Every structure is written in structure tokens, then in C-alpha cells.
């Protein structure tokens, strides 16, 4: 499909105004903040008790309030592109380290200091404690 679109654009090039090359090729969203993304991966590893997490699509949003990141992941060592169906979203106090975890959601369950479920508050406190220890 991508090649057919590129071929069509090449044929139409003489009649189209000059377009930047970036508009002609599809690419995933550029990483905004690798540090936010790595912090969110650390949240996932700590929560899932997994030493290694394979990531699929990773997006970060340092310009939002609160800043955060979200990504798809798999805990399988031999992960294939179709295995990245799990998702985590993390929110932090600021866009620069050291980060303080405000809240995170895995799939449709959220964990934070103000969650209704005591167990979800507890899981948040555990992950936040692990993240805070890593800063020291």
C-alpha cells in the first residue's frame, strides 16, 4: 500500500507542488522524551515484576500537564509485532528527571494515590516506592 501511494505520488509529481519528503513517507510518531519513556518502562517492569519488557509503539508527552508517556509492550522474549497488545500509560510530576510518579494505568485499570480501590492504591504506592528508591 505504501509503495502504491509512493508510486502514485511519483507519477503525479510534475503536477503537484513541491512537498517535503517527510510528508511522502509514513513513520511512527517521533519520540518526544526518551527519559519519560524510560521512566514509564521502569514503571511497567516494576509493576509486572518483569526484568525485561519488549516495547512496541512508544509515545511521550512532555508538553502536557501532567507530562507522561504511553506504550505497548510484551513480556515475551520472542515477541512478534502482533504480541504488543498490552498498554501502559504513566503520568509524572514534571517532564525532567527526577520524575515522581503521579498515576499509571495498565489496560483499563488505573493506579494512583486517589483510587477508590484500596488494592489499586497499594499497588501504586509499591511502584512509586520502587521508583523513588531508584532516584537515590
UniProtKB/TrEMBL annotation:
It comes from the Bacteria. Keywords: Signal. The keyword Signal applies. Residues 1-31 form the signal peptide. The keyword Signal applies. This is UrcA family protein. It comes from Rhizobium puerariae.
Amino acid at each position: 500500500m505504501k509503495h502504491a501511494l509512493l508510486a502514485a505520488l511519483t507519477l503525479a509529481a510534475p503536477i503537484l507542488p513541491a512537498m517535503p519528503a517527510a510528508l511522502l513517507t509514513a513513520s511512527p510518531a517521533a519520540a518526544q522524551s526518551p527519559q519519560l519513556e524510560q521512566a514509564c518502562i521502569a514503571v511497567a517492569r516494576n509493576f509486572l515484576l518483569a526484568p525485561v519488557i519488549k516495547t512496541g509503539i512508544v509515545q511521550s508527552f512532555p508538553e502536557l500537564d501532567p507530562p507522561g508517556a504511553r506504550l505497548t509492550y510484551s513480556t515475551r522474549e520472542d515477541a512478534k509485532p502482533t504480541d504488543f497488545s498490552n498498554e501502559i500509560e504513566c503520568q509524572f510530576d514534571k517532564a525532567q528527571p527526577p520524575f515522581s510518579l503521579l498515576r499509571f494505568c495498565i489496560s483499563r485499570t488505573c493506579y494512583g494515590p486517589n483510587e477508590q480501590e484500596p488494592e489499586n492504591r497499594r499497588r501504586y504506592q509499591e511502584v512509586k516506592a520502587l521508583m523513588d528508591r531508584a532516584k537515590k
